[in-house]
Specification:
The structure holds 2 protein chains of 2 kinds.
Chain A: H1 6-51, H2 54-61, H3 66-90, H4 97-102, H5 107-115, H6 117-121, H7 128-150, H8 158-228, E1 235-240, H9 248-251, E2 259-264, E3 273-277, E4 286-289, E5 294-298
Antiparallel strand pairs in A: 1-2, 1-5, 2-3, 3-4
Helix pairs in contact in A: 1-3, 1-8, 2-8, 3-8, 7-8
Chain B: E1 12-14, E2 19-22, E3 27-30, E4 38-40
Antiparallel strand pairs in B: 1-2, 2-3, 3-4
Keywords (chain A): Membrane, Transmembrane, Transmembrane helix
Transmembrane segments (chain A): 36-58, 64-87, 203-223
Region (Disordered) (chain B): 30-51
Chain lengths: 302, 51
Amino acid sequence: MPAPDTGTQSVETGLTVARISSYDASTARLRDVAKWFATSTVAFVAFLAAAFPIAGIVSDVGSVTWLGVVLGLVILVALGYVVALAAQVLAPQVVTVDAVATEPELDGLRTQIDGAPYLFLGLWADDVAGFVDRRSEVFEDQRIVRGLLGDPGSGLAPEVIEALRERLRQIERDLSILGWVAYRVESAGLYALTWRRFRRLRVHAALAVLVASASLVLLVASVREGASVQYAGSPVTVTFLDSVEPDPTSLLGVDCPETVDGELVSAVAEPPWTVHVDQAGCDPVTLNLTADQAVLVIHDAP
Amino acid sequence: MTLEPGTYVGEYHWDGERLLRWDGTSWTVPIPGAGPDQQPAVDDYTSPSEG
């Protein structure tokens, strides 16, 4: 049996540890950038929202349109999408060697490994699938040798037992290094996956900001359009419906006619209306009217 | 020298001097570390009829 070359093995293990540290550090850095990126994106849209006095306009108009609600939801969904993508980058994930060998998301890394397998796998295999097979074979070898050594009825000669024990030591040394190499591949896999998700976050966050910004502008435009149609101060004629009890005109003064003129106090044409009565013969009161109490005719403002 | 083929892949055999391992087609000498994990045995153990 050749003597085990432990010197070479420790160099390989040392290089592997260095490479793993490098990948792990890069993955952590990428996650920090993703956090900053998502926070900046949401803060940017929040800044835009704060720059438009939407709440004030809506409260002036006194109503929120369906279009406004839909646009508001689009903004929230766009920002929520950015946060969800960032969460995918930040969430810890287990990446196995088998996943690196098969997952479509890790195609890029596989191509990289196939181009220079010795950088990732040493001389253990030429590609990740081969590495998985090699490791499985060594595990199987370990199982067989342990089985032989553990079988009390095998009747093996002492020199055979010694040779098998030496073989088991070799196998376990190999498994130890294979474990480090697997860790290196898994670490590279996690980095590749994080990088891929970060790239998706970058592109989709840019799109989400565009959609959110456009929706914000449309929201403000739609609210301003609603706000621009102001009916407050328009002259109106109110005809009370017969079904209203007691007869409203009896409350407005004995000389008050059934149809009264006034001025619209509320801002929109839709009921309920607030009307200030300025009809001659009627008390100068302010009425709150609903559609089943009166018919309202709004005249063009003078 | 002749040796019967192994019955399963990974089977070990002691030939009096060293451990041999059946790789499915021939008896080989297992070697540790990266690179090939086995080398063909110098003796041709695969064809007992030719031994």
